[in-house]
Amino acid sequence: MRGVLGLWAAAALGGIGTGTKTPVILIPGFPTIEVDFLVPSDCQLPSTLPPMCQPARDVWAPLWLPQPTPVGVEVTCWIQYMGVVFNTSSPTQFSPSVPCLQTRVRDFGGFGAMPKLNKTVLPAFEAAGYVVGKTLFGAPYDWRLPPSAQPEFVADFKSLVENVSAANGGRKVALVSVSYGPGYALGFLHRMPQSWKDDHIAWFVAESPGWSGFLGPILVYISGYLEDGSNATSFATQVARSVAQETASVPWTFPLLGNDPNTSWPSTEVLFSTEKRNYTARDYESLVTDLGGGPNQLATARAMAADPDLHEFAPPGVDTFVACGIGLSTPVGASYRTGFGVNDDWVLHEVRMGAGDGVMPSRTCGRGAAWAGAGHKYTMKVYQGMSHASCIHPNSTDPFAPNSICFRDVLQLLNAKA
Question: pLDDT, tens digit, for every residue of 16-27?
């Protein structure tokens, strides 16, 4: 892994030693994060919970399903534990669907909750001379909820930045985020005083951000769409759809309504169509209702549409570098064979493709250009043919591959602030 990659990474860093690097905190995309749950012994479970869904008490267990995915009762119970409900009496607006259930993201600051990164992102940074626990750290989050509903994540993140900076001689810290991660990093920065950001943050690096929304999670929300082509009635798609509808983070990605088609989704652009009607970015409430969503799902969708981090989209208040892939076929719309009624089959007929990185449409990357001239550096670079979230998964045998070039640009950026 260290062959060609190690050579060009070292060259990009100019040969500086570990002690002079800009320390990095990684904020990953949500599929890489593992969340645990615990039911206390004194928890009174709701009567609506099936009798077979009685968990072990006072024991932390993975919230995600084991692999290979089981079937039947275990999945039914898991979906019950996974869910969150909109709760206006809660200071965070959300509560677990099973009252008194506790959750945690293990090893905050490290990578114990992100094992997939051990084979991708970590080797890339280690080849460039970074050391886990010294100059390289992780900031996992509960991917079911937006940052506005996770004050403990914000508090832990702030402490982590301060501790990392202090341990590295007071150097400012770079926040390197991927896919869903930029939204969480932005939410964190929105909640920090400007003076604190000036003292502690060197760069905000956003790779493959979804700031204007994107189609993939919503296709899962509607019909359990999976890229492997699984049938709409298959067990896998039914599980995927149930998970999407039980969390708040999927409605958070609904395409943003706006007038500029380069950065948002105009009300004249059809996102989803059936034989009965069309849905645009203006119609998220109608879509949820037609899908049979109850009051909780509708309240969640409304709250996420108004979430200030992505709705108001205030500048982060720090120097920002945005990296995006372009030139790949990317979902921008879909049509269904029938409607979404009880007697309809909900079969996905066609996914319409447009420009992007294979997951994020190009327009969602360009939204950050609104921050240019807001008092801090703003740079956006696009990389032809670079697939989603692959910048920090560089090709060790080809230093001229688009993801290798992207990662080299990131390393040079960090070197300039060291």
Answer: 334 589 999 999
